[in-house]
Amino acid sequence: MRHFYWYGLFIISTILFWNCNREEIIIEGGDISLDFSTDTLRFDTVFTELGSATRFIKIYNQEKRRVRIDRISLQNGVGSHFRMNVDGIPGNDIRDVEIAAEDSLYIFCEVTIDPNQPLSISPFVIEGGVVIEAGDKSQTIVLEAWGQNANYIPNRFSKGTFSVLSCNLAEVVWNDPKPYVIYGGLFINDCTLTLPPGAKVYVHGGLVRSDDLGVYNDGFIWVLERGRLNVTGTLEKPVIIQGDRLEENFQDQPGQWTGIFIGAKSRGSSIEHATIRNSRFGVYVDSAATLVARNAQFYNTSSSGVIGVHSKITMENCLIYNNNSNSVQLVYGGDYTFDHCTVASYGVDASALAMSNFICYVPNNLGCDLGGSYRLNASFKNSIFFGSRQDEIILDSRGGVDRSQFNYLFENCIVRVNKLLEDANFSNFFDFCTNCPQKLTTVDKLFVNSSKDDYHLDSLSVAIGLGAPIPSITTDLKGKIRDINQPDAGCFEREN
Fold first, then answer.
1. Which of 124, 259, 377, 430 supports an S-S bond with 281, CB 3.0-4.6 Å?
2. Cβ 302 vs Cβ 243: under 8 Å
3. How far apart (Å, rounded) are the C-alpha atoms in residues 67 and 34?
4. Each residue of 269-313: pLDDT tens digit?
């Protein structure tokens, strides 16, 4: 009996030891293959007051051996809005995590939201990630939460998707006091979207991948042919349209969202007392479409502020600056009127204004394959086109300068041109720029401080009193009464 006891104990010990050794055969490094319960963990609660939410991810080890993960960490570490617990171990950076054969582990993620905090602290869309590293492999689970009580258009789960606003040619007014957050792409069709005074629209952009479109920049407003966008801000309550990242280091970041498209043949859109900023471009007006913009600002764009393509644009008292391409780009002809506008282009190798009566459909090494040309008719009065380049106006006409096909007129404007006058086609530029001071450089006094984006007029500005009265424009961008006899050029009347 005693021998049987020791024999049995030996057999059991051997089995346990063999199982232990088998379990100790660990897969690690780049050979690990893991499965996840999701690739995006969304906290779908919109908080109206301070609150927390917890969600979990499961990591599956389908191997028949134990695996070791080198590191599981939160993006941004202690600066993250999220907190993490890996199988009961709290922390933002956990090392040497093991998962038994054909087993799994839980990663619990928590977020605390106070929607009453400023947007710079609690943005509309809070993004983070859980990074799983094993050897030379790194995989990230995206974390998304909603930091403000807002109207999410079309909903909080529409990143990388498109939605259509349609109302049978009626009107939709975004008059909720809560801000609106466009999450994805918004098309306006068979409908007029009105943004009333004080409306705030934040667009969540970023690179997304689509099977149909490939990789593209998300976040845009696109007005289709039977759609219309009416922005009806006032001096006291302007409308704001910008990216949704309001943290301090994103305040002046361009390219956060795509911009506003006024699609081909769409007519009747207007923008009044509005700021459009931090996009790829401010507004793009396509073929045969129309736009009227008054007292509007377009700035901090990674491309142009205003683009017109064979379209009709009227702008009054508008300020366009901090654009990484031509601030105003008018191509393929069209009809354009700019009165009392300031267009400033400093610190970039691109002009304030570029105009042509053609378009390049297929650029090539020799220039471009032309898509035809259309008549250009452009009028600029009491406006400023200035910056750090010698030429802040670029004109390009196919087929020579036939005034019937390439018609432009500047009146009482501040312009900076130099080499343009050496072009045989435009050597007579100042014949069509009446009462425009010539040979201006950055030495000449113009703005208070262009390096700080203060485009009010300096006390010695050459733009003071340069303009001619335009009966329909009696105030400037900030509501200051203009001189009835000799108004200043640009969007600002000089403060006395």
1. 259
2. no
3. 9
4. 999 999 999 999 999 999 999 999 999 999 999 999 999 999 999
- Gap between the Cα atoms of 166 and 189, Å rounded: 5
Residue 169 half-sphere exposure, CB side, CA atoms within 13 Å?
Answer: 5
- CB of 253 closer than 8 Å to CB of 219: no
Domain-wise residue ranges, the chain: 27-146, 151-436
Owner of token pair 């780009």:
329
Residue showing tokens 């990074």: 131
- Across the range 408-428, mean pLDDT stands at 95
User: What pTM, to 2 d.p., does this model score?
Assistant: 0.78
Which residues are registered as beta bridge partners of 2? none
The strand ranges marked E within 278-357 are: 283-285, 290-301, 306-316, 319-323, 328-339, 342-345, 353-356
β-pairing verdict for 125-134 and 66-74: antiparallel
The domain made up of 27-146 has a fold known as: Immunoglobulin-like (2.60.40)
Tally the C-alpha atoms within 13 A of residue 350's C-alpha that lie toward its C-beta.
21
Residues 443, 449, 450, 454: what is their CA dihedral angle, to the nearest 10 degrees?
-150
